[in-house]
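Human: We require from you a protein record containing the residue sequence and its fold in token form, and nothing else.

Assistant:
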Amino acid sequence: MEAVLLALAAAAGAGGLWWYQARGNRLGGRSYAQLPAAFDDDAEVALHVAQHEAVTRGHALSSVHILYGLVQNERVIEALRETGADPDAFEAAILDTLDTPRPISTGVTERVRLIYAYAFHSAGHAERKPSIVDLWAYLKDSDAVAVLEAAKVSHLDILFRLVHGPVPTLDTIDLGDVHIVLRNDDYTTGDFVVELLVGAFGLAQDAAIARTQQTHSDGRGVVGRFRAHDAKSKVQAARELAQTRGFPLWIGIEPI
């Protein structure tokens, strides 16, 4: 689980990417226009599309332009379809928003600076290049969310599918014991997982921390052994709490 405090990345919004410079200038002297080359291939393409759309319209690059770039990606398109959204209609809604008159400008908005900061931070922590999943994850709380909400597209549902794939079902034999299992992601905080394990599953604080660390390092962690009926209700409650808090937590049931 991503255990780094989000406050660290949030601080980047006020001062650009100063904390990257303090950690060895990971931007490598790149301008914001050059940053797409530091992302993985899919994200680089999405960002180039976003930049082209912004420049063509005489806009500063915004979160809505990034959203437009992302909905050209096949993974995002498939995730939209899986949640019942119409990708073509959603793209049209984004373009309608971009058609709204705004002052001629250049460069990037402060929110885009923050999206880049979050993306590089998560990717660096996981020792990989930033991806389309990072870009989608950190559209949260941006102007793009209003476009998503107007189109009745769930930011979190799409993020979950980009990270984990389809939501696992809770269909299982009602008799006998099962394991409740967690899977790692780079966006659910370790603090939340520890809180969940203590509050919802009754683990001691030390045990909850150890289980969270194991999930982060191994990619998977067993919460415990439960009767199937109890496991279903506990997992459903955990999912609802994660949804409320905005985390794409994977928690499910596996046979023993």
Summary: Residues 3-26 have pLDDT under 50 and may be disordered. DSSP finds 13 helices and three strands in the chain.
